[in-house]
Structure formats: structure tokens, C-alpha cells
UniProtKB/TrEMBL annotation:
It holds the Pfam family LytTR. Residues 4-117 form the Response regulatory domain. The lineage of its organism: Bacteria, Pseudomonadati, Pseudomonadota, Alphaproteobacteria, Sphingomonadales. This is LytR/AlgR family response regulator transcription factor. Residues 163-266 form the HTH LytTR-type domain. The keyword Phosphoprotein applies. Gene3D superfamilies: 3.40.50.2300, LytTr DNA-binding domain. InterPro entries: CheY-like_superfamily (IPR011006), LytR-like (IPR046947), LytTR_DNA-bd_dom (IPR007492), Sig_transdc_resp-reg_receiver (IPR001789). The modification 4-aspartylphosphate is found at residue 55. The keyword Mitochondrion does not apply.
Amino acid sequence: MTIRTILVDDEKLAIQGLQLRLEAFADVEVIGTCANGREAIRAIKTEKPDLVFLDIQMPGFDGFSVVKGVMEIEPPLFVFVTAYEEHAIRAFEANAVNYLMKPVDEAKLADTIERVRQRLAEKRSAEEAEKLKDVLAEVSPESLEEIASSEETETSSRYEKMINIKDRGQIFRVDVDSIEHIEAAGDYMCIYTGDNSLILRETMKDLERRLDPRNFQRVHRSTIVNLDLVRQVRPHTNGECFLVLESGAEVKVSRSYRDVVARFVH
């Protein structure tokens, strides 16, 4: 799978440097470069790339204007590259894959390309599934209804609804939906339900398997949050931010898990 890519930056040296770093990825093909926002909009509409690395601060049309300018077509994935940290939350609002600071760090670029690969794989799998469903809808509507019903049943039954927690010599039955967030401390998990906290002896990896990922997502190396109980996203420094939960508790989202925030602002 080749990732067709366009680079947008009004600084020629910045484009050259990024293009050089991208040569390390055999599946990334740079099909064009643009020096301003207007050029970028034309190129994106014409070439229909998979990915665009986009500078934010440019004369005339800035990076966010470019995103708005291609919304009438199916937009590519965007990665913002900039020298200004204060644009991080707006990057989330644009549902960017990532937000890279200049000069671009090679390790962070590698992490970004891996995220792009995952997003594209998920997108293409979803497209193939939709095509199949369209065919079934025409030739066998009853089969499509059976598939939808079985998918819903399988998803709902796969994950825990209640968790038994032995804490302080007692066994507590905790409704999973009431859990606000979970923090890891070695092989122990601190389970917070807003008005209570309990200790569960289990690894985070094992606990994640028991929770529905549509509701529970990791936002830090040692923290899982119930997305349904997030009430506010508050920006912080260095591309990080805080999630304010229903109880008023605040949980930091590290740079590595910023994709989660896009769910609230897209």
C-alpha cells in the first residue's frame, strides 16, 4: 500500500528537510509540494492524496483554511507541522493524525507514519465492508439484516457489564458504565467511579481486554478514561491537554494519545 503524500509549507528548506526524512519510509510517495494554501487546495482536489503534511502559519490561506477548503471532497489525512505549540487544540478540532513541531523529530515522524498506516487500513477495511453491504442490500436484504443483528449482539456481549473487585476484605460489584477513569500502579488498578475508589489486582493490558473500546480509551501510559463521562477538553502545554470528567476530576492526555481527543472536537 503506497501512501500518496503532498507537502505544504511556504519555507522551501522545511519542505526539503521533511522530504528527506520521509525517504526512510518505503511506502510513502511524495507526489507534490506546495508553497501556499491556495496551491495546496488545488493540488489536493486534483491529486486526491492519502496524506498531507501541512504547515499552519502561511501567508494568505493558513493550514486550517486549507482543511476547510477541501471539505466538499473526501479529505485526505492531515498532519500539521509547525513551530507554534498554541495551535495544538485547533489541530485536534481538524481531526489531524498528529501535530509535529519543527524541526521534525525522526522518532515522532515514524510514530506518525505508523498512525497513518493504521488509519488508512481501517478506512479501507470499512470501505470494503460498506461495498459488500451495498451488494447484499440489493441481492439479499434479509442477509444484511442478519449481519447487522449479529454484529450488534457480538459487540455488546463481548465486554464486561459488571466487574467484581475484592478490596479491603470485601467484594464490590461495580457497574462498568459508572467507572470514570482507571489509573495503573504496577499490577494494581485504581478504579474511580466519581464518588468512590477501589483497588483491583490486575494488569492494565488484561483489564483493557474486558472493557468496550468504544467507551474506554487509554489517554496516558497509565490511565484509561470512560469517554462517555468526559465533560470538557482543556488545553495544556507541549501539545498535551486535560480531560475534565463528570465528577470534576481532571486527567492529563499525553501527546502519544492525542487521537482520543479528536472524538470530542471533530
